[in-house]
Amino acid sequence: MKTYLSCTFAGVALWASAAHAGGGMEGFGVPSNMDFYAGGSVGTASQDGACNTLSGSTGCTDSGTGYKVFAGAQLKPNAPDGTLPKLGVEGGYIKFGESSSAGELLSVRGIPIGSSSAKSDLTGIYAAGTVSMPVAPRVEILGKAGVMHWSQENKSTAVIDDDPEDERNQSTSSSESGFGGLLGAGAQYKINDNFSVRGEYERGFGVGKGASKTEPSLLSVGAVFSTL
């Protein structure tokens, strides 16, 4: 991931240098009204529904720290600023963090005889269409809609108290993946022509399978480096 992030920023930096030196990137076959950007954000991630994966749960954590890295391109309309929205595409990697829950194992008479736990680690790679619109000097609102390929690592354990040889003791793990939807909205403040600060909320849909279904989200703040 560090290599991916370094290459992403290095590529955007080269684009920015070429655009600044040559007054644009037309020489590379890129329209003069197209800009490129890359960035990273960190914030609070949650996995709604994750606490329902373990019956008899006595404790659950379904939120924590998450982050993302992303890159994209925007096509500016040939119109005065603020009169038409900018359309674009964006791709990125999101870490939704880990959820965990704990519970009790009960006998047929309802007597606690052990403990159980479940954990789920969730990530996603997305591609989305974007739209942004200036609403004030240096400030613009933005939205996105797209598809996300999610990957989920699940682990569950069951332990019978004081009996390590009990056949009901178990530890299982599984990996699931698939495609779901992603929606996002936020705002961006431009510090200068090449650097902005972005705050954004993103939410995934159709993520997970069976008892591991969840609707993950990320509320984050980060930096964007662009060729603007």
Name the average pLDDT.
Answer: 80
**Radius of gyration over C-alpha positions, nearest whole angstrom:** 23 Å
Supply the CATH architecture: Beta Barrel
Strand content: over 45%
CATH topology descriptor: Porin
> Which residues form runs of ≥5 with pLDDT under 50?
1-6, 8-24
Q: Domains counted in the coordinates: how many?
A: 1
- Number of discrete helical segments: 1
Q: Largest beta sheet: what is the strand line-up? A: 1-3-4-5-6-7-8-9
Explain what the structure shows.
The protein has 228 residues and is mainly beta. It has one domain: Beta Barrel (Porin). The protein is built from one helix and nine strands. The protein has an eight-stranded antiparallel β-barrel with strand order 1-3-4-5-6-7-8-9. A hairpin with a 2-residue loop joins strand 5 and strand 6. The longest helix has 21 residues, at 2-22.
Which helices and strands, and how do they pair?
Blueprint: H1 2-22, E1 34-48, E2 57-61, E3 63-75, E4 86-106, E5 112-136, E6 139-160, E7 170-192, E8 195-205, E9 215-226
Features:
single chain; 228 residues; mainly beta; Porin; 1 helix; 9 strands; 64% strand; disordered N terminus
TL;DR of this structure?
With 228 residues, this protein is mainly beta. The protein has one helix at residues 2-22; strands at residues 34-48, 57-61, 63-75, 86-106, 112-136, 139-160, 170-192, 195-205, 215-226. The protein is 9% helix and 64% strand.
